[in-house]
Amino acid sequence: MSISSRFAVGIHILALIELNKEGVTSSEFIAKSVNTNPAVIRKLMGMLKKAGLIEVNPGIAGAKLAKELSSITLFDVYKAVNVVHEKELFSIHESSHPDCLVGRNIQNTIEPLFTAAQLAMEKVLKNVTLEDVVKDIATKENNC
Amino acid sequence: MSISSRFAVGIHILALIELNKEGVTSSEFIAKSVNTNPAVIRKLMGMLKKAGLIEVNPGIAGAKLAKELSSITLFDVYKAVNVVHEKELFSIHESSHPDCLVGRNIQNTIEPLFTAAQLAMEKVLKNVTLEDVVKDIATKENNC
DNA sequence: AAACTTGTAATCAAAACAATTACATGATAA
DNA sequence: TTATCATGTAATTGTTTTGATTACAAGTTT
């Protein structure tokens, strides 16, 4: 199992809006870069808009960032596109048997451990901004 | 999207084998505690056996731990039941357009970030042993 | 009014899961 | 030996999630 590529595509969208800020970044333009369907992009743009990361309006072509590039973290995108819910990176088998010592306690024992692991992962995402991503893209390009 | 409950059930199985070490821990016995089908348990037991965590033989009822409880980490179980592959906790959209600055670089930029996040999560799992889990189950039981 | 955009719903195929059934194979006790 | 019970494993099924696609309403611009 894998965390949905919506997350990677969400980052792609935001980086593209930034790097194309002189131009008009429509859903069709983005869709070509991502190589997918414009409706997929519009769905994601709706999520990014709802999370306050971009500005986009019906009928008006193009999206703009709603915040400073350096103030958007990967965690913001991760939450915006809703790939993993709180405390639900790991799923816990729900219906253990209450008559069994292990069955009736395993869930409460495991849950905080799983949550801690998830938080450690999310902390890494909080420490990377879209500015880092965009700069890295530029660096990679210049070294080619 | 969530990481398969195979992981939680794998931990359950090992804890149960330990806490029932005086008795015979058959797939049917485990299945009752987990409240699922014995064939599901046998599949998981096969994975745990392949990973060298338990000993179990065809025709002979019951499984035993193959290692010290304190030397089995949650990460060992996580790898054994194969819920997440290396560097694949996050999926990356594969077919970005190479003619676009962002499209041709985003994948290489994002990949190490995703890997770092995954490793942070896995590090937490490496620092918890099944002994911790079993002790916690006992503690919870005594406080009821 | 025509052409273009975003917003959104409905549909579809593919993949992953977990549950279930079935049965071959191995071990053990009557 | 035969009956019984265990593990090992394959096939099937219903459910859920994804991502792609089509379609169209509603807003904007020329």
Description of the structure:
The structure is a homodimer of 144-residue chains. In chain A, a hairpin with a 2-residue loop joins β1 and β2 (60-65). Chain A has 144 residues and is mainly alpha-helical. The longest helix of chain A has 26 residues, at 101-126. Helix content of chain A is 56%, strand content 7%. A two-stranded antiparallel sheet of chain A has the order 1-2. The first copy, chain A, has helices at residues 6-19, 27-34, 38-50, 74-80, 101-126, 130-142; strands at residues 54-57, 60-65. The interface between A and B is large, with 56 and 56 residues. The structure holds a DNA duplex (30 and 30 nucleotides).
Major sheet size, sense and barrel closure of chain A: 2 strands, antiparallel
Q: What is the straight-line distance between the termini of chain A?
A: 34 Å
The chain-level structural class of chain A is: mainly alpha
Q: Can you tell me the overall shape of chain A?
A: elongated
Say what oligomer this is: homodimer
Count of discrete alpha- or pi-helical segments spanning 4 or more residues of chain A = 6
